[in-house]
Amino acid sequence: MTFDYAPAPESRAVVDIASHYGLFIDGEFVETIDGTTFKTVNPATEEVLSEVTEAGAADVERAVKAARTAYKQTWSKMPGRERAKYLYRIARIIQERSRELAVLETLDNGKPIRESRDVDIPLVAAHFFYHAGWADKIAYAGYGDRAYGVAGQIIPWNFPLLMLAWKIAPALACGNTVVLKPAETTPLTALAFADICRQADLPPGVVNIVTGAGQTGRLLVESPGVDKVAFTGSTEVGRQIQRALAGTRKGLTLELGGKAANIVFDDAPVDEAIEGIVNGIFFNQGHVCCAGSRLLVQESVHDEVLDALKRRLATLRMGDPMDKNTDIGAINSFEQQSRIDDLVRAGEDEGADRWSAPCTIPERGWWFPPTVFTGVTQAHRIAREEIFGPVLSVLTFRTPDEAVEKANNTPFGLSAGVWSEKGSRILWMASRLRAGVVWANTFNRFDPASPFGGYKESGFGREGGRQGLAAYLKQEVV
Ligand code: NAP
Ligand code: MG
Question: Are 152 and 223 spatial neighbours (Cβ–Cβ below 8 Å)?
Fold first, then answer.
């Protein structure tokens, strides 16, 4: 039986997008000195949303200088309990403006409004509340209490405002000032956040937002006035940054890619596991660094799980991200869609069996239907490389040892999922999986109190929790 849902689009009247944005430096929006402009588009419609500034070298230096001055003159002199008040205020304003932020995020990124409204924005507020609570207790966290000074932060497009929160909230709580570069394709919520900083009366220069592409990020990384670089993005760019910083005194944390195993044992409750698999790889169109992109299913339940999974995937609704019924939104950019196309073609060429959900692809914008590959071996590119799209590769195992071996057979180590009724087996698996986060009978759950980060090529450093504070405190030399 199929259902037709009446469209339930969220109104975009709640957002007010300017036709042009400058850079947010020293508490105000300013025009560029030596940069240019670029357009940001809605990936679901290809509509141009706004013209944004691409910061040049002089702009980046101006932002870093503003952050340095703010650090010296106001922020480092302020007691933690005063910094906490600003973080609380920002958190409250985010809650008050949550609908506007969710709509803006969905328009600029293409993710379903249901996700930006129910996941991204509540977590953004939660990160500011959580770190507001730490600001006057930093000295008790166990990492000293010396801030770096100016943090240069670079984030990707998959969770634009959430990644901003993961970066800015702990940096400010620990007493640093920041210059942040959002991703080229999703600058709008970072610019709305700049307005929130103004509304919260945050002292000028404590937060600076420089929009631009990779080159602006490079300028920020290499700026001599930056004391600490925090980067979330691809392993490839992470490597370049680490090379650029070798031999300097700058601090560095890297949150990079992943290729997580979601491991389903034969005693797992199948219906729950199916929801976990769907949430693991089709949440946010699979544009999730910790996505459960490799399903390892115990051989005895392979057919049962795959049949149930395909039945479930056939019910997912792909289309207008602003519609509250939509499960699968748009792919963020043409470039990303091409990357997904290439890897899916490689999967077909290497002999894996492709199945895609029967979705109607909208005429404009960039899309990819939920796709499952079976008959995948560990040598296949789709089992080794991060696809960063709604594509699941299915492998099988017979014993727990084999599951561990296959799960760890990857250059990445960000996350993993285990589905089993046996608590002892879950603990046994968790102690052997080389992954920063292991979820048990759930997937893609986030909480600001829980540290997140990787092993191996997934990077180093943690975000969130007490451990996340270490990234923004200069460790005492012993
Ligand atoms: P990306 O190309 O590495 O870009 C990330 C950010 O770095 C963007 O702001 C980008 O600017 C900028 N950038 C590009 N080249 C740079 C350079 N040479 N120097 C400094 N900055 C530079 O990654 P992406 O494709 O946007 O994002 C997807 C990747 O992020 C995936 O691999 C995913 O796994 C990873 N990710 C990891 C986590 C985590 O917590 N571990 C979370 C989310 C995503 P432009 O936007 O202009 O390219
Ligand atoms: Mg965009």
Answer: yes
pLDDT at site 5: 82
CA 338, CA 280: separation in Å to the nearest integer?
Answer: 22
Predicted TM-score of the model (pTM): 0.97
Binning the chain into helix, strand and coil, the percentages to the nearest 5 are 40, 20, 40
**Residue to mutate, 289, 331, 342, 462, ligand 1, most ligand atoms under 8 Å from C-beta:** 289
> 379 — alpha (psi -120 to 50), left (phi > 0) or beta?
alpha
What is the distance in A from the centroid of ligand 2 to the CA of 130?
29
Nearest of 403, 466, 469, 388 to residue 435 by alpha carbon: 403
pLDDT of 353 reads: 98
Place of tokens 């929790």: 465
Rounded CA-CA distance 317/198 in Å is 39
Tens digit of pLDDT for each residue in 241-264?
999 999 999 999 999 999 999 999
Structural domains of the chain in order of their starting residue, each with its CATH number: 12-256+458-472 (3.40.605.10), 261-448 (3.40.309.10)
Neighbours of 253 (CB within 10 A): 23
**What pLDDT score was predicted for residue 469?**
98
Distance from residue 255's CA to the centre of ligand 1 (Å): 9
**Residues of the chain below pLDDT 50:** none
Ligand 1 atom nearest the C-alpha of 454 is: 41
- Residue 200 CA to residue 91 CA, distance in Å, equals 10
Indicate the length of the chain as a whole number.
478
- 3-state DSSP of 336-364: HHHHHHHHHHHHHHCCCEEEECCCCCCCC
2: burial class by Cβ within 10 Å (0-12, 13-18, 19+)? exposed
Block residue for tokens 């899916």: 344
| 168 and 127 Cβ atoms separated by less than 8 Å | no
At residue 18, the 3 state secondary structure works out as coil
CB of 158 closer than 6 angstroms to any ligand 1 atom: yes
CB atoms within 10 A of CB 130: 22
262-291: b (≥16 Cβ within 10 Å) or e = bbbbbebebeebbebbbbbbbbbbbbbbbb
Q: Are strands 371-374 and 294-298 parallel, antiparallel or unpaired?
A: unpaired
Centre of ligand 1 to C-alpha 134, Å, is: 28
Whether residue 289 contacts residue 158, with contact meaning beta carbons closer than 8 Å, is answered with: yes
Please write the tens of the pLDDT for every residue from 202-240.
999 999 999 999 999 999 999 999 999 999 999 999 999
